[in-house]
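Protein: SpdD-like protein
Species: Streptomyces luteolus
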Amino acid sequence: MLRPKIPVNDQPTGETIPLTGTALDHQPQPPTPAPTPVAPAASARPAVQLTPGSLALLVGGGTAAVLVVGAVLVSMLLAVAITAGSLAVTALVVRSLMNDHASGSKRF
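Structure follows.
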């Protein structure tokens, strides 16, 4: 009832080769056993030791990175706001010029 019909493939040579069998004709494979867990090998590198000086350096570097990224994002937002404002002023000027032109008044 719900068996899909496999279409016949048209080859570039024009020769039609019908497909035989369905996707369900294969024999099921026996399940493979699960791999046994292996204990991780001991690392040859020592663990990272943080001294108070290196910890302060990390905190200072992280703070500086956050401030720089924040300043860049704020400046991008400001650039978008300035562009939007100048575009709005330009639109008002163009609309005013078009209204004057449509009404027929001559100021020039």
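Remarks: The first strand starts at residue 9 and ends at 10.
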